[in-house]
Amino acid sequence: MNEKDLHNIENDRLKRLLQQALPPIKGDLEPDHDLWPDLLRRLDEKPVTTPWFDWALLAGLIGLAAFFPTAIPVLLYYL
Length: 79
Hints:
By secondary structure, the protein is an all-alpha fold. It has 4 helices and no strands.
């Protein structure tokens, strides 16, 4: 057997393994209805809140900038 035959055998084996691991998807892949109105309704139901940890990080950044003003360009570089 030459290298090309071994390569083809390996490709066929890999193809069979993938077909066994990932069976074909059957049925309609499209949703039954438009999802956009549902998304808008869910966004309206849930008010946007900012976690306390975000406020703590913001306070830390302000404190860092107050005590070490030379760090401001470094912080702006990483934004």
